[in-house]
Structure formats: structure tokens, C-alpha cells
Amino acid sequence: MPRYDRFRDEVARVQAAHPDVELYVVWSGPGEPVILHFIRTRPAMRGQGLAEAALRDVLALADEWRVPVRLTAEPVTGDTDTDLARLIAWYERHGFALRGPARPGEDAVIMQRPAPEDDPPPERPERHGRRLR
């Protein structure tokens, strides 16, 4: 299971790799899923697959750490490019499943992508606090 500080550093690298995507990811620690609070491409940059690339990197990170990913899918107020059905379909293509309504009376649902079920990979050796690649 990862340590929080290492996970935070990995998320910072993912965020830096996708500067045109607004991305907010939180993990509370062992036994908890990664929470994808927000992922959105800046309006001027849409249609280029940028959010999809960022999501793939977040999912790869979660898979590496063997933790599920949870989110609340809901359209952004004032954003006419997305609706809930389109968001759900997009997340389902990436392995998420519906878990239920987020809040009664609101246009939002909770979705989760499970952690990988296979055997965890061996720990990467560390040298002076840095992973060897």
C-alpha cells in the first residue's frame, strides 16, 4: 500500500503533465479509494483528448497503487458541452460503474472503478527516497 506523500507526489506529476486539464485528485490513505473530485479540459482546448489522457494517467496511478477510484459524475453548472448521460458513458468506457445517486434531487451519480484484482507487483526499490525506474 502506498504512503500518502508518495501518492501526492505522483499526482502532482500527473497534474504537471496535463496543464490544460483542471484535475483535482485526493486519497485519504490505506483502505480508501482515490477520489477524483474534478477533471475538466479548459473550454478552448476541448476536443483534443486532453482530459482522456489525464484520466488514463490517474487510472494508471491508481492501478499501480492497487486502489479503486471513485467520483461523482455531474455536469458543471453553465457548461453546455456536457450532460449527465454523456459523462456516465464516458466514465463507463474507462471501467467505472454506477454506484447510485449522489444526492437526492440532484443531477449527479456516484461511480467507482475497482482496484485491480491480480497480485500486486513487487515494490520498486528506493534509493535516497527516490524510486528507481
Automatic annotation (TrEMBL):
Single Gene Ontology MF annotation: acyltransferase activity
Coiled-coil features, chain-numbered ranges: none
Pfam families on file: Acetyltransf_1
Name of the top EC class for this enzyme: transferase
Region entry Disordered, spans: 101-133
Gene3D superfamilies: 3.40.630.30
Annotated SUPFAM superfamilies: Acyl-CoA N-acyltransferases (Nat)
Domain N-acetyltransferase as annotated: residue spans: 1-116
Family matches, as InterPro entries: Acyl_CoA_acyltransferase (IPR016181), GNAT_dom (IPR000182)
Keyword terms: Acyltransferase, Transferase
Keyword Lipid metabolism on entry: no
Cytoplasm found in the keyword field: no
Protein EC: 2.3.1.-
UniProt name for this protein: GNAT family N-acetyltransferase
Native species: Actinomadura rugatobispora
